[in-house]
Amino acid sequence: MKATRKHNLIATTLAAALAVTSAYAQTPAPGESPTPGFNNKIPESILTPDTVPTSIGTLNFVDGVPTADSARRVYDNLDSLRGVEVFLNFIPAASLESMRAGAASLGATQSNQAIIFDQLMDSNPLFLTGNTDTVYCMAMLDLQVDGPTVVEIPPGSGPGTVNDAFFRFVVDMGAPGPDKGKGGKYLILPPGYKGAVPSGYFVAHSRSYVNWLILRGFLVDGKPDQASRMFREGLKVYPLAKAHDRPPMQFINGSRKPFNTIHANTFEFYKEVDHVIQKEPVDFIDPELRGLAASIGIKKGQAFAPDERMTKILTDAVAVGNGTARAISFRSREPRNALYPNSQWQNLFGAADYQFLDSEGTAGRNLDARTLFYYGYTVNTPAMILKIVGKGSQYGVIFADTDGNPFDGGRNYQLHIPPDVPAKDFWSVVLYDTQTRSELQTSQPFPSRNNKRDKLIVNADGSVDLYFGPNAPAGKEANWVATVPNKGWFAILRLYGALEPWFDKTWRPGEIEEVQ
Question: pLDDT, tens digit, for every residue of 13-27?
Answer without folding.
Answer: 444 444 444 434 445
